[in-house]
Design goal:
8 strands; about 270 residues; single chain; Porin
């Protein structure tokens, strides 16, 4: 009898202990929250841009006796600018610095003649074309979270075509004499500024303005051209012209940034 009492008492105690333990709060470690990595501008990126370009073309007659007027001195051309971008950024605190290269295809073309100028019954007719513009630039900016305000400057290069022809004053469809055709790749400088915003850790959008000057190209030729009376010119004398081309570009762009330089995820302690 005593043995049964002891066994019954032990069973009740065991059950009571289990029930009490079940009512105690759990001692398991709480879940650990891992915050997403902070946004960083560091990384290699690819992008595309599109916008508007205004070309400025200056013609400088090196011999005043050649034209004797300034009707072709300055012309402008507006057109579409679109292309691709490759760059890299490094961020140190709020400072962002990097290198960017791009190339833009341009539709800028302008043709000009002065109807008041007639040389031996022919009118000079000038065509300027800006075919493409590329840049290699440094960038220096201030990051305010996902917004980057930056300045940029560096090397510019462009393909420019300048052409001068004499057309019949009685109607341009009847006669044309090519006088020079200068097609060259020129080098100069570019500077500008912009604002970029991070939509996601990888995708950014930007707006920027650039001004590029690709310096000058020279053309030399012997006058008079074939078919034009020599009375206006000194036969056999070499004449020359100089052309300067620059462009202002306003454009928008989108970039995809690779995570090659992204900070590693935080280490979570194990319990």
């Amino acid at each position: 009898m005593a043995r049964k009492f002891v066994l019954s008492t032990a069973a009740v105690a065991a059950l009571s202990t289990s029930a009490f333990a079940a009512d105690l709060p759990s001692r398991a470690a709480p879940p650990v929250y891992i915050p997403p990595p902070a946004f960083t501008w560091s990384g290699v990126y690819l992008g595309a841009t599109a916008g508007f370009a205004e070309g400025f073309h200056t013609f400088n007659d090196l011999n005043d006796a050649f034209f004797g007027y300034s009707g072709l001195a300055n012309t402008q051309s507006g057109g579409f600018a679109g292309g691709g971008t490759l760059g890299v950024n490094l961020q140190a605190g709020s400072l962002v610095y990097g290198l960017e290269a791009d190339i833009n295809w341009l539709s800028n073309k302008t043709s000009y003649y002065d109807p008041n100028v007639v040389i031996n019954a022919y009118q000079p007719y000038e065509t300027n074309r800006l075919n493409y513009l590329g840049t290699v630039r440094g960038r220096l900016g201030l990051a305010i979270d996902r917004t980057l305000i930056y300045f940029t400057a560096g090397l510019a290069y462009a393909n420019v075509n300048n052409r001068l022809a004499y057309n019949s004053a009685s109607g341009f469809s009847t006669f044309e004499l090519p006088y020079y055709n200068v097609d060259s790749t020129r080098f100069g400088w570019v500077a500008g500024a912009g604002v970029e915003y991070g939509l996601t850790p990888n995708w950014t959008i930007k707006g920027e303005a650039l001004y590029a000057d690709v310096n000058t190209a020279n053309a030399t030729f012997v006058v008079p051209p074939p078919g034009v009376p020599a009375s206006r010119f000194v036969a056999g004398l070499i004449y020359g012209a100089r052309f300067n081309t620059s462009a202002a570009i306003i454009r928008a762009g989108v970039n995809y940034k690779f995570d090659w330089f992204a900070p590693p995820p935080g280490v979570v302690a194990k319990y």
